[in-house]
Design a protein that fits this description.
Largest sheet of chain B: none
Distance between the termini of chain A: 15 Å
Number of helices of chain B: 6
Radius of gyration of chain A: 17 Å
Number of helices of chain A: 6
Shape of chain B: globular
Oligomer: heterodimer
Number of domains of chain B: 1
Order of helices and strands of chain B: HHHHHH
Distance between the termini of chain B: 20 Å
Largest sheet of chain A: none
Chain lengths: 125, 138
């Protein structure tokens, strides 16, 4: 049980922190307007030159392997909504780390997502 | 105005890709990993068996491919849209995941779980009505 809790925490915290780092890196790269393959290769090159990308990739890799371990234990319709708890952490991270304006409506939406996740958890018991 | 329409269009298209490929990847990984079963202990030998299984499963590789498509779409959309917008908006994926789990893997999804997924979708709808970009672009 303890090992499962640890893996869930890894999926949630490392995954969200990794995504926040990736978001910061992509904001540094700038808005992508050209979606042709060679242009996307250029975007990838620019993104890989930003340190936040590597930190994000490291954290997301950690979260990915934790998810693989969790998936071996639980069924997917339980596992995937559990990771939705990271929405509250994500909204907070977006506000503090990326300086996004998270207004009342967005917080309300995030709260509903968290309630939905709780219902999914209760429905599993 | 046209610029705003383009912004909305490309955001919605990429979120659609995210909503499809993220749960598809998870489902394929789940299907692949189920063959391994619950590990009895996290010893080096057990971990080595775990990694060897991952590398030899076609289903797991298909899952990884789907997650790469998801990751590229997710990364691209973050170049212009707020993380606190994109992350909840992609929660529609949980509905897709439950459908895939139920109809493809045969997972049991209870009425309460379906209700939870509906509430998640309502939350996503509210977030979707907020501005998708609140920071200055570089």
């Amino acid at each position: 049980m303890l090992i499962e809790v640890l893996f869930f925490l890894l999926v949630m915290i490392a995954g969200t922190a990794g995504e926040l780092c990736m978001a910061r890196a992509m904001k540094t790269v700038g808005e992508v307007t050209d979606f042709r393959p060679w242009a996307l290769v250029g975007v990838a090159r620019r993104a890989l030159s930003v340190p936040w990308t590597w930190i994000g990739l490291g954290l997301m890799t950690l979260a990915f392997f934790a998810l693989l371990a969790v998936l071996a234990i639980e069924n997917v319709s339980f596992v995937v909504p559990v990771t939705a708890l990271s929405y509250a952490v994500g909204a907070l991270g977006g506000r503090v780390f990326l300086h996004e304006r998270v207004n009342a409506a967005r917080w309300a939406g995030v709260l509903l997502v968290c309630i939905g996740v709780t219902l999914v958890l209760l429905g599993k018991r | 105005m046209k610029e705003l329409r383009t912004l909305h269009f490309k955001t919605y298209v990429l979120i659609l890709v995210i909503v499809i490929f993220s749960p598809l990847g998870s489902m394929l990984l789940s299907k692949g990993m189920k063959g391994l079963g619950a590990p009895v202990a996290w010893t080096p030998g057990e971990i080595a068996r775990f990694v060897a299984f991952v590398l030899s499963s076609e289903t797991v590789w298909l899952g990884i491919g789907s997650l790469i498509v998801f990751f590229v779409a997710y990364t691209l959309v973050l170049s212009w849209a707020d993380y606190s917008y994109v992350q909840p908006a992609s929660a529609f994926a949980y509905g897709t995941a439950a459908l895939l789990g139920h109809f493809v893997l045969g997972d049991k999804v209870s009425a309460l779980q379906w209700a939870g997924i509906m509430v998640i979708c309502m939350g996503v709808f509210i977030v979707g009505r907020t501005p998708m970009r609140t920071t200055e672009q570089n």
